[in-house]
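Project outcomes to date are best conveyed with an example. Our students and postdoctoral researchers have been running inverse folding experiments weekly, and each run begins with a structure described purely in tokens. The record below, which covers 321 residues, was selected by the lab manager from last quarter's runs and is presented without edits.
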């Protein structure tokens, strides 16, 4: 019996291009599902292929339009559960609402936990996601969660560039641990930008801990939406004599303000993102004043799906260079 005989892969509408790449990696078409909308906006779902007794994976990014994406995912999971699927794994290349992971003001929700509860209530038996904004989100789940990392894909790209004098830079103190891990694997220096967020879309970077003069800066972050952190950190590196600045982010939920900022303020040579979220509609990368590169996480997700189905280690994907 081949690995493809007993599992099925479905996709919501949030990131169909990525789901199709995952299916290509697995050497099979996506299984059939119909997701129309009623005139009043309600979502309907009919699973066309029979799922009784099957190991089922549903790919759905939590962006763009996270509310619609999640509601669609919950409805798909419910349809699969009622179709007697043996196991349902929700595959979220991007975990929307991940930034709302703690109560940092009075009378505010912890929405990342709420999403975990809703996934379980809908009927998910397992969750697979990529580069969570905060590792503690894993503790919000009472079902197994596989936390994938785009690190192997990003590291391969960086090594292929052969920069003369690379240094890894964390754009804020919260990313210091991740940046340190990259610097160890790349055998290069580490620097950290100290910043203060002055609003929902504004950031003030005020110092660089470390020497970036004459260096090719490799800036690592999990996501950028407004571009504030990256722009402020890139400017600070430039002011401190950096030769070039290359920013790497796993998720790219770009906002209108972010698009404006990247067009005008960001002092980058290159921004490298993954396809965990489709590029914003109407966004034209060719108009950017720097190079935009998109790496695909489809092979990573596809391999994780195969290993999950075969009860093999996923951690091994990240233990080997």
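After processing, the design step wrote out the following sequence:
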């Amino acid at each position: 019996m081949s690995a493809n005989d007993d599992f099925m892969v479905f996709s919501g509408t949030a990131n169909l291009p990525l789901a199709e790449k995952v299916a290509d990696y697995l050497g099979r078409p996506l299984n059939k599902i119909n997701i129309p909308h009623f005139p009043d906006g309600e979502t309907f779902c009919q699973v066309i292929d029979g799922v009784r007794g099957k190991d089922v994976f549903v790919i759905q990014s939590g962006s763009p339009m996270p509310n619609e994406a999640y509601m669609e995912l919950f409805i798909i999971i419910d349809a699969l559960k009622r179709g007697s699927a043996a196991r349902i794994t929700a595959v979220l290349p991007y975990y929307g609402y991940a930034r709302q992971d703690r109560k940092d003001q009075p009378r505010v929700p912890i929405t990342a936990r709420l999403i975990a509860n809703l996934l379980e209530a809908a009927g998910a038996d397992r969750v697979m996601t990529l580069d969570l904004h905060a590792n503690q989100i894993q503790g919000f789940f009472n079902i197994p969660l596989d936390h994938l990392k785009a690190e192997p894909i990003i590291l391969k790209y960086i090594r292929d560039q052969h920069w003369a004098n690379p240094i890894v830079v964390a754009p804020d103190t919260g990313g210091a641990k991740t940046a340190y891990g990259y610097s160890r694997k790349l055998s290069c220096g580490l620097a950290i930008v100290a910043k203060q967020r002055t609003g929902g879309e504004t950031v003030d970077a005020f110092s660089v801990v470390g020497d970036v003069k004459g260096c090719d800066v490799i800036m690592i972050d999990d996501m950028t939406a407004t571009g504030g952190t990256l722009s402020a950190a890139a400017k600070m590196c430039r002011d401190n004599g950096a030769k070039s600045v290359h920013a790497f982010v796993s998720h790219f939920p770009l906002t209108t303000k972010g698009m404006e900022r990247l067009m005008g303020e960001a002092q980058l040579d290159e921004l490298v993102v993954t396809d965990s979220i489709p590029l914003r509609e109407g966004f034209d990368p060719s108009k950017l004043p720097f190079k935009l590169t998109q790496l695909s996480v489809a092979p990573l997700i596809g391999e994780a799906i195969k290993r999950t189905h075969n009860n093999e280690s996923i951690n091994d994907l990240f233990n080997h260079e």
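Residues 7-149+299-318 form a domain with the Rossmann fold fold (CATH 3.40.50.2020). The chain has eight helices and 14 strands. The training component of this project remains on track.
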